[in-house]
Amino acid sequence: AQQGHIREKTYGKQKVYFADQERLPAAGDAELRVLDADIAARSAEVQALLQGCRQLEAELKDLNSAMTTLDMAREIEELRKDCTTYTEKLERVKSATNHVTPEEKEKVCSEQKLYCKEWRRRKRMATELLDAILEGYPKSKKQFFEEVGIETDEDHNVTPPAAV
């Protein structure tokens, strides 16, 4: 500092030393433009490297999340086992001799429709008859059903199947 190579500034009780910039050579406009162009080129290079780094990180993430060869082999083996199990099941079903013919199925379906229709008709008749009896009955419907011993579909949570 005494020789003039560095400068000294006092801030309160602290002293700060820094280089004397007046002794350094001043850069011309041409040199500043060259330096600015160099900075711009290096910034572009840094951006390109950062972009490449992001792409490589994304690729690494994809590769890490993908199945390994061993995992893939295990998965293939499991799928083959499932396939053979389903094939055996299919063969058993195909070889069964107790298949229902379409005629038998149609017959059963028509009988079910007939029985459901009859069930609804009889329930409606019984309800109308009981409502007629209850018009002159002094007690409640529930008490009448208990005295007579009538059990309804609702008591057993039963409903006729929907019409097909």
UniProtKB/TrEMBL annotation:
Domain Leucine zipper with capping helix, residue spans = 100-156
Which residues constitute the signal peptide according to the record? none
> What broad class describes the main subcellular location of this protein?
nucleus
Location in or out of the cell: Nucleus
Keyword Lipid biosynthesis carried by entry: no
Q: Say if the entry is tagged with keyword Coiled coil.
A: yes
Give the CC-aspect GO terms. Answer: condensed nuclear chromosome; DNA recombinase auxiliary factor complex
What residue intervals traverse the membrane?
Answer: none
Q: What UniProt keywords are attached to this protein's entry? A: Coiled coil, DNA recombination, Meiosis, Nucleus
Q: Which GO terms describe its biological process?
A: homologous chromosome pairing at meiosis; meiotic joint molecule formation; meiotic strand invasion involved in reciprocal meiotic recombination
Cited InterPro entries? LZ3wCH (IPR040661), WH-like_DNA-bd_sf (IPR036388)
Which domain of life does the UniProt lineage start with? Answer: Eukaryota
Which regions form coiled coils?
Answer: 46-96
| GO MF terms held by the record | double-stranded DNA binding; recombinase activator activity
Name of this protein: HOP2 protein
Organism field: Odontophorus gujanensis (marbled wood quail)
Q: By which gene is this protein encoded? A: Psmc3ip
